[in-house]
UniProtKB/TrEMBL annotation:
<dbReference type="InterPro" id="IPR038765">
    <property type="entry name" value="Papain-like_cys_pep_sf"/>
</dbReference>
<keyword id="KW-0788">Thiol protease</keyword>
<dbReference type="InterPro" id="IPR000064">
    <property type="entry name" value="NLP_P60_dom"/>
</dbReference>
<feature type="domain" description="NlpC/P60">
    <location>
        <begin position="150"/>
        <end position="272"/>
    </location>
</feature>
<keyword id="KW-0645">Protease</keyword>
<feature type="region of interest" description="Disordered">
    <location>
        <begin position="1"/>
        <end position="20"/>
    </location>
</feature>
<keyword id="KW-0378">Hydrolase</keyword>
<dbReference type="GO" id="GO:0006508">
    <property type="term" value="P:proteolysis"/>
</dbReference>
<dbReference type="Pfam" id="PF00877">
    <property type="entry name" value="NLPC_P60"/>
</dbReference>
<dbReference type="GO" id="GO:0008234">
    <property type="term" value="F:cysteine-type peptidase activity"/>
</dbReference>
<dbReference type="InterPro" id="IPR051794">
    <property type="entry name" value="PG_Endopeptidase_C40"/>
</dbReference>
<dbReference type="Pfam" id="PF18348">
    <property type="entry name" value="SH3_16"/>
</dbReference>
<dbReference type="InterPro" id="IPR041382">
    <property type="entry name" value="SH3_16"/>
</dbReference>
<protein>
    <submittedName>
        <fullName>NLP/P60 hydrolase</fullName>
    </submittedName>
</protein>
<comment type="similarity">
    <text>Belongs to the peptidase C40 family.</text>
</comment>
Length: 272
């Protein structure tokens, strides 16, 4: 089983795996919520970053041990470890950050000290309004930077374009740093389209399309890389070649990637 999508470690497993694997114990899991602006989802306790989670993301805890919680990210099913200190009891988010980035302010004033920076996709519980700010359980946020949960983008390319110039970061999922699959996931989730966290997993979404039928929002896959079609000649992707999110001529990118021995395009998918 793929460890990234299997809610089990050496100490415990989710109830859904009963009869499929052996485990010291099975559990229904403990719902929790990310309480920090950004937290790494790790492959092992204190290990390498697989992905990142944002403020308000749901996390089903399967096991706790020595300061780390193992579990499953509710937004995409990705399993791994987060620091226990980054989790809190589950809340009831009402809005999400639909701007590339914003700040949590200590008061409803533009001059007020900021408490933290938040990325596109972070989830908040709005409790009231104060001028141009929304009052939340975490602080004050400019209302124009928020959308109610369920109010989504119509065009994933529009969402992806908000990340132009964002630094490349392996396993990144925020405006502070993002990788190719993180960019695609952020754009699709913003449109209400389910999307896994890694590019190889993303190859299973939607339907295969022919090269001649590619259109805006379709995905191109290489081994270990993914990009999104912008129009007939261009694509957008987060790439280590330029260490940022860029729009690039599609044919130029295909030729360059092939010349770097990364191989040809291996799939063309249309998310649904």
């Amino acid at each position: 089983m793929d460890r990234r999508t299997t809610p089990a470690n050496a100490r415990a497993a989710h109830d859904s795996l009963r009869g499929q694997i052996e485990a010291p114990r099975f559990t229904a899991g403990e719902p929790a919520q990310v309480s920090l602006p950004l937290v790494d989802l790790l492959a092992a306790p204190g290990g390498a970053r697989d992905r990142q989670l944002l403020l308000g993301d749901g996390f089903l805890v399967i096991d706790r041990h020595e300061g780390f919680a193992f579990g499953r990210a509710e937004k995409d099913g990705f399993c791994g470890y987060v620091a226990e200190a980054a989790l809190a009891a589950p809340g009831a988010p009402t809005h999400w950050v639909a701007a590339p980035a914003t700040h949590l302010y200590s008061a409803a004033r533009v001059q007020a000290p900021e408490r933290a920076g938040l990325s596109f996709g972070a989830r908040l519980t709005v409790t009231g309004a104060a001028g141009i700010f929304s009052e939340t359980t975490e602080g004050h946020v400019p209302t124009q930077h928020l959308r109610p949960l369920g109010e989504v983008f119509a065009d994933p390319v529009e969402a992806a374009m908000l990340f132009l110039g964002t630094p490349y970061l392996w396993g990144g999922n925020s405006r502070s740093g993002i990788d190719c699959s993180g960019l695609v996931q952020a754009a699709l989730l913003a449109c209400g389209i389910a999307c896994p966290g890694d590019s190889d997993l993303q190859q299973a979404i939607g339907e295969e399309v022919a090269e001649a039928e590619l259109r805006r929002g379709d995905l191109l896959f290489w081994k270990g890389h993914v990009a999104m079609i912008v129009d007939a000649t261009r694509m957008i992707h987060a790439t280590g070649q330029f260490m940022q999110v860029v729009v690039e001529e599609t044919r130029t990118a295909i030729d360059r990637i092939a010349a770097q021995d990364a191989g040809p395009v291996i799939a063309r998918r249309r998310p649904r």
